[in-house]
Specification:
This protein has helices at residues 11-25, 41-84, 86-94, 99-136, 144-170, 174-179. It is an all-alpha fold.
């Protein structure tokens, strides 16, 4: 059954009248539970909004875990790079390279690595969006702000997770680093 209100202010009154009419027709006395459900479009819109909020929270959580795993991967790659290049670092410091220069070198490598990963992610996301639009017939839009934000956030992940390996490289004792095999 369908009923409509003439204005937005009449919705509650119409909903009450429909409930009373159905109570009568279903012979439901006061205090008994209804065997029907009366909803309005606002209830349906609120349910859809709540569902969208839960989905957004779920996707945000998945993205956060992915960033954490990616950041740990970048940190591990950079720590291996520092270990493999210990003699190079020791030689550079021995001939006069400043510790800040060493730190910036490895921090820059981490940022480039993370930003390249973010750029590839954006490219795959755009391709996936185009394919989804073609296959499913959905309209998809990608804003420039979201693309730039994603790449910038990737660079920040590189700074955050690359700082420890870069500092470790900068703190190396040149004599011990040159002895390293």
């Amino acid at each position: 059954m369908e009923a409509a209100a003439t204005g937005g202010d009449d919705v509650a009154a119409v909903q009450t009248e429909v409930t009373q009419l159905l109570d009568q027709r279903h012979r439901i006395s006061a205090g008994q539970p209804d065997d029907f459900l009366v909803r309005n479009l606002q209830d349906i819109a609120n349910a859809a909004s709540a569902t969208a909020s839960v989905m957004q929270l779920l996707l945000t959580s998945v993205a956060a875990v992915a960033l954490l795993v990616g950041g740990i991967g970048i940190m591990n790659i950079m720590l291996v790079s520092v270990t493999e290049r210990t003699r190079e670092i020791g030689l550079r410091v021995a001939v006069g390279a400043r510790r800040t220069t060493i730190r910036w070198q490895f921090l820059t490598e981490a940022v480039v690595l993370a930003t390249a990963g973010g750029a590839f992610g954006v490219i795959f996301g755009l391709l996936g969006s185009v394919i989804l639009a073609q296959v499913a017939g959905w309209r998809t839009t990608v804003s420039l702000v979201s693309v730039v934000s994603a790449v910038a956030f990737s660079a920040l992940v590189g700074v955050f997770f690359g700082y420890y390996p870069a500092s470790k490289a900068a703190r190396m004792d040149p004599i011990e680093a040159l002895r390293f095999e």
